[in-house]
Design brief:
The protein is built from 25 helices and 24 strands. It is α/β, with parallel strands linked by helices. Strands 1, 2, 3, 4, 5 and 6 form a six-stranded parallel beta sheet that branches. The chain binds flavin-adenine dinucleotide and flavin mononucleotide.
Length: 661
């Protein structure tokens, strides 16, 4: 029988590099495949998998059959593991695992993180510790744990380059592998891009996009691996027309289904490219070889329905699992361009690494090679990253790069969905079967005066009522406190635990959803049998901040209404308007004001309440936490050390939750 260790003698002598990754927004995935390709260009056998693409039970045997196992792991959320490694990570944490599970395996971990988040590289650190406990040895010459930081001069890429070089030097040296020549490199890169096999299906062929959505995107969506097809019901600007920032309130009606989500949960939205992007892609197809002669116009080419299968051209050990592709199996090229290819996304270095082998013109090839090299980082920064040039822009600009269709579909990465905290819509509130979003539209001027509009926020902003939106919904920890661990019904507390919400800017979204859910509960209770209300005491405080009262004070009338009708349990101080007065006022200032301070201490210190913080600024949650600590010191009489320990305890008990993006 074939085992993971079987294979011919020659094959067995080739080093085998196993690359495992956990990635939320695609960077770790991109780097994992970059490392895999570079290993293959050194004639090593290599494969890269998201941890959850593998069966957890087979991991130890797979790891033992590799010469080296390297992990590239991002940190998501507030110090959490990315969603495509959570299942595997849970399995690795099991207490009863043998302490020698990975004995004999050589491993190294590269963490991707950002020091502006409180828990820098938390997921990689935890993983590194656990692998050591399970007996993994270090890969000699490479640190067990290397931490890359988005804030470093070259982002995470600088650290990756040095680390990858070390890994490949060590792995290749153990097995003396000759490096490929430039022609061989070009050949191997082309072959990899051609590992898709395409067939033109008839015009009437049914589309099958299965495979594309097979990821743990949203556990609360009642349609298995399929996203919900929602319909935009409301799309309204909620910043003043003459204000620089456009923010929109969007309500998406959800299709009927067994929905069970709550305020605080998160929508995972799949954006679509604009008709203009699709048209430009169609133009590119006119230069693509391989179409039947009668399919000669842009429209006809875009209308072609193709079926896609991946033939495994990669040089992984044959007994290792095949790497999953994440492409639809059958759809029109127009749909490919609209829904699946990240044509408007900004390329990373690896795009150029894969692109240069297709350049026919030597000058273009040289420029692409420079963009692909670590030395060309400044050029990449100027030409691409700062300018937000897109994959499509680059393909249009480099006219000698005209790979055949199947390579084109593989070269452009696929669209990654964007998350939005629900701003309302939980089934138990009045907003039955709908998802409310509060979307800040990303619009920025680049150094050369181009305008970049964010893919998903731009897509949502320009989706009028009646248009369709594909989305999943996933659970969040940020639920009403009594729902976070079991339901109110089960526990019937005399009084619900208090909640302090701090949500400046679009960070107001989850707070609005939580408040709407609470309002629905209060109203339901009022219709009840007259027993004392668990909501009678003051228990819900909302602290909001924005720039100007007349410009971006979101949902102003709603708060006024709740304050008027429910002042017995709801508290909202004057928002912090940072640009209305000479001295800038922020939410942290509001927290420290006398009356608010008293209430915060009562909520969090005396009544075991919860603190939820949400918003766009990565530094804001830390500032808010510092102010709350100050309250514990000034009002609660704690020492600085006690206040720090107290906040840590709150966090451990699930009473201090941050959602920052
Ligand atoms: C838990 C959570 C809740 C959020 N809630 C809200 C909310 O309530 N309201 C709100 O306005 N925003 C919210 N966001 C931010 C939102 O997800 C988007 O980042 C934001 O709308 C900008 O996305 P965009 O596509 O418009 O912009 P883009 O410029 O296209 O992308 C913005 C960011 O996405 C990443 N990115 C860019 N291209 C890609 C790509 N090809 N693949 C993967 N990632 C890429 C980059 O980090 C980039 O900075 C939340 C984010 C998270 C994680
Ligand atoms: C919503 C969000 C939360 C994040 N949380 C953390 C964090 O808690 N700690 C950290 O070090 N980095 C954090 N990061 C930074 C990412 O880990 C970093 O950008 C990484 O390169 C992303 O890799 P990925 O694209 O593979 O997910 C966060 C990034 C985002 C967008």
């Amino acid at each position: 029988a074939q085992t993971l260790l079987s294979g011919g003698m020659a094959e067995r002598n080739r080093a085998r590099l196993l690359v495992l990754y956990g990635s939320q927004t695609g960077t770790a995935q991109d780097l994992a495949h970059t490392l895999r390709r570079r290993a293959q260009s050194l004639n090593l056998q290599a494969a890269a998998y998201a941890l959850d693409d593998l069966d957890a039970e087979m991991l130890p045997a797979l790891a033992r059959s590799a010469s080296a196992v390297v992990w590239i792991v991002a940190t998501a959320g507030a110090g959490e593991a990315p969603s495509n490694m959570q299942r595997g990570w849970k399995a690795l944490r099991r207490r009863r695992l043998a302490a020698d599970l990975f004995e004999g395996c050589r491993m190294a971990v590269l963490g991707l993180g950002d020091t502006t988040y409180e828990k820098f590289n938390a997921a990689a650190r935890r993983l590194g510790r656990r692998l050591e406990q399970l007996g993994a040895a270090a890969l000699e010459g490479v640190a067990r744990l290397t931490l890359a930081n988005e804030q470093a001069a070259e982002g995470v890429y600088g650290t990756f380059e040095g680390w990858a070089k070390d890994v490949l030097r060590v792995v290749a040296a153990r097995h003396a592998t000759p490096e490929m020549t430039e022609e061989e490199l070009q050949q191997s890169a082309r072959q990899e891009a051609l590992s898709l096999s395409l067939a033109f299906a008839g015009a009437g062929a049914e589309s099958d996009v299965g495979g594309f959505y097979e990821k743990p995107y949203g556990d609360l969506t009642p349609f298995g691996n399929e996203p919900a097809l929602g319909t935009v019901a409301v799309n309204r600007r909620i910043t003043a027309d003459d204000w620089i920032q456009e923010t929109r309130h969007i309500e998406i009606a959800l299709p009927p289904g067994n929905w069970d989500f709550h305020g605080g949960d998160v929508a995972v939205v799949f954006p679509e490219n604009s008709a203009e992007i699709v048209r430009r892609f169609g133009q590119l197809l006119l230069d693509s070889a391989g179409f039947p002669p009668e399919v000669e116009t842009r429209e006809k080419r875009l209308a072609m329905v193709i079926s896609v299968a991946e033939s495994d051209a990669q040089t992984a050990p044959p007994e290792w699992p095949t790497m999953k592709m994440q492409l639809p199996r059958c759809c029109s090229l127009a749909d490919f361009a609209k829904r699946f290819l990240d044509l408007a996304g900004t390329p990373t270095r690896s795009f150029f690494e894969r692109l240069w082998p297709w350049a026919e013109n030597e000058d273009e090839k040289d420029k692409l090679k420079e963009l692909a090299s670590p030395e060309g980082y400044d050029l990449l920064l100027d030409y691409c990253i700062r300018e937000r040039r897109s994959h499509l822009d680059v393909l249009e600009e480099f006219r000698s790069v005209r790979p055949p269709l199947m390579a084109l579909l593989k070269l452009v990465p696929t669209i990654i969905p964007r998350e939005f905290s629900l701003a309302g819509g939980a089934p138990c509130s009045a907003d039955v079967n709908s998802a409310h979003l509060c979307v800040g539209v990303v619009r920025q001027k680049t150094p050369y005066g181009r305008t970049h509009v964010g893919l998903c926020s731009g897509y949502l902003a320009s989706s009028p009522p009646g248009s369709s939106v594909r989305l999943f919904i996933r659970a969040s920890q940020m639920r009403l406190p009594e729902l976070a661990n079991g339901s109110l019904h089960d526990r019937s507390p005399a009084h619900v635990p208090p909640l302090l919400c701090v949500g400046p800017g679009t960070g107001i979204a989850p707070m609005r959803a939580l408040l709407r859910e609470r309002l629905a509960m209060v109203e339901k209770f009022q219709e009840g049998d007259g027993t004392e209300s668990p909501f009678a005491k003051k228990h819900f405080a909302l602290i909001f901040g924005c720039r100007k009262r007349t410009m971006d004070f979101y949902y102003q009338e709603e708060w006024a209404d709740v304050l008027e009708k429910h002042s017995s349990w709801f508290y909202m101080p004057e928002p912090a308007f940072s640009r209305d007065t000479e001295r800038k006022v922020y939410v942290t200032d509001r927290i420290l004001e006398h009356s608010t301070r008293q209430l915060i201490w009562e909520f969090l210190g005396l009544r075991r309440g919860s603190l939820y913080i949400s918003g766009t600024s990565k530094g804001m949650p830390q500032d808010v936490a510092a102010s709350v600590k100050q309250v514990a010191i000034d009002t609660g009489g704690m020492s600085a050390e006690e206040a720090t320990a107290w906040l840590k305890r709150l966090e451990k008990e699930g009473r201090y939750i941050v959602e920052a993006w």
